[in-house]
Design goal:
It is built from 17 helices and 12 strands. By secondary structure, it is an alpha/beta fold. The strands form 2 sheets. The protein has an 8-stranded parallel sheet with strand order 9-6-3-2-1-12-11-10. A 4-stranded antiparallel sheet has the order 5-4-7-8, with no helix packed on it.
């Protein structure tokens, strides 16, 4: 990883015409913004399909492989001939500043269904129909996903372990009957994924031409209500009578929460028969990594420490306090994956309770860890997150992450008086209103190979623009950036800072072309 910098912005937070950021004009314009500011990286959150039952959290996806249909660009479907301009004319007055999921979801779903009906009429042999069939043949996960989504819809969105028992347990005859009965619905969910990945490939190609690398986010765990757990029950710890998890994932009490975080995800059966690695689980992970690296250039593994050891919480407990540490698969797992996949550029999310064993695993694998400046001032001068204590260039420095408050919101509302005093001394500033600019300077001037700044911090936004508050289950993942904030002046200033601190990406010769 060469010395560089980039911006953290989830795709849903992009400006856009339909109440949520998507893979359309707003994404291309943001890549142009990054290229104009000489940024080499765009980091975003997981892009899988979300569920209203989990407040549309990208970390509780319905699939580890599928893309979120809410991110599909409707304008592109007009270009394909599956929607007409007048279909998009009568839209609600969506907020520029928030994703109103309760309004966005039914609006986009109705138009995607309409596009599908028009698409079906073209299945007789045109080029896109052939591309669709090739896509369906190549994506081994797609059949299970489309069937899962179809049954889930038929079952009024109940979790799969609450479905009729033969279907939940994947009885072959029952599944065959479901495929026959729900054939049209299955085809629709395949169509959604075809649209998503067709658009994603175009966007990824555009980013490459602009010399912007895409940094994806891969949660270590998947949601219990997901196609993955339903289709691969043998690789998760489930109660074989109820099919619900016996123990769930999370983390013990830490900086973010006094009671820890009870995520609720099912845990993996890392060992199979004879205490050997679970070959089915390893195969599933290999496919997951392969899928991820096809569509991103680098991936941040969320909760990397879980590969060394993970916090196991009894499923009936309401908090994460009474869990226990269990040994993870360790270095052997990644050695196997590297042998199978070869190139695996990974950023290890190594925050929270980190032991020497976790640090050893990260360093032996050569993965850069994360340095968070908001964590740097709550102790003394030996704090590992202070830039003068970075012991390697092989790390990624952030002002904050999606789980943090914005830097301005944190400084004004969360930082202790002692922390604020240390910040003012360290940054040489007495103006708390400019703390976001000082943190950008500290990150860019550090020895870290990569500096990533959340867009909220680049723009100096306050607490009302926070993306997520850990351990809360409502009201997160909604912030959006209005287009006027991505101004030429912001781009110019970021460009100058980037050049000054020797983080500038090579300039492209086609700035602003925004070719689709």
């Amino acid at each position: 990883m060469q010395r560089g910098s980039g911006i953290l912005l989830h795709i849903t937070s992009l400006p856009g015409d339909f109440g949520i950021g998507d893979l359309g004009h707003g994404a291309y314009a943001f890549i142009d913004f990054l290229a104009g500011a000489r940024q080499g990286y765009w980091q975003f959150l997981p892009t899988g399909p979300t569920s209203q039952a989990f407040d549309n959290s990208p970390y509780m996806s319905l699939s580890a492989f599928a893309g979120n249909p809410l991110l599909i660009d409707l304008h592109d479907l007009v270009g394909c001939g599956w929607l007409a301009d007048h279909d998009l004319a009568d839209k609600p007055a969506f907020s520029e500043y928030l994703v109103e999921f309760s309004r966005v979801i039914p609006y986009k779903q109705a138009l995607l269904k309409k596009a599908f009906e028009n698409f079906k009429g073209q299945l007789a042999g045109n080029k896109r129909a052939e591309e669709f069939r090739t896509f369906c043949d190549q994506e081994s996960w797609l059949d299970d996903y489309a069937l899962y989504m179809s049954i889930r819809e038929e079952q009024d969105l109940k979790a799969w372990h609450e479905w009729p028992d033969p279907v939940a347990r994947r009885d072959a005859a029952s599944l065959a009957e479901c495929r026959r009965r729900l054939a049209d619905s299955v085809l629709y969910y395949m169509f959604e994924q075809f649209c998503f990945y067709s658009q994603w490939e175009k966007l990824h190609d555009y980013a490459r031409r602009k010399r912007v690398s895409l940094i994806g986010d891969l949660p270590i765990y998947v949601g219990i209500d997901s196609a993955d757990v339903w289709a691969h029950q043998d690789i998760f710890w489930l109660n074989r009578k109820t099919l619900a998890p016996s123990h769930v994932a999370g983390v013990p009490p830490d900086y973010f929460s006094e009671t820890g975080q009870r995520w609720g995800n099912p845990l993996y059966q890392w060992l199979g028969t004879g205490k050997k690695p679970n070959s089915n689980l390893y195969s599933w992970w290999r496919q997951r990594f392969e899928q991820t690296f096809r569509y991103t250039d680098i991936v941040r593994i969320d909760h990397f420490r879980g590969f060394d050891s993970y916090w196991e919480i009894p499923a009936h407990h309401e908090t994460a306090v009474n869990g226990r540490w269990r040994k993870g698969p360790g270095k052997a797992f990644f050695k196997y994956m590297k042998k199978e996949i070869k190139k695996m550029p990974i950023i290890a999310e190594d925050l929270g309770i980190i032991t020497p064993s976790v640090e050893k695993l990260r360093d032996e694998l050569g993965y850069p860890g994360m340095k968070i400046l908001q964590f740097a001032f709550d102790s003394d001068e030996t704090n590992a997150y202070l830039p003068h204590n970075f012991t390697t260039t092989n790390c990624v420095v952030y002002s904050g992450t999606h789980d943090n408050n914005t830097t301005l919101g944190w400084y004004l509302g969360e930082a202790s008086g002692a922390a604020r005093e240390r910040i003012r001394k360290y940054a040489g500033t007495f103006d708390g209103g400019s703390i976001h600019r000082e943190f950008i300077r500290l990150a860019f001037s550090s020895v870290a190979d990569l500096a990533i700044i959340p867009l909220q911090d680049l723009l100096g936004f306050g607490e009302d623009c926070r993306m997520n508050l850990p351990s809360t289950s409502k009201g997160n993942w909604r912030w959006r950036c209005a287009p006027r904030f991505l101004s030429d002046a912001v781009c110019y200033n970021l460009r100058n800072e980037t050049i000054f601190y020797n983080r500038a990406c090579p300039e492209t010769t086609n700035q602003g072309e925004n070719q689709r």
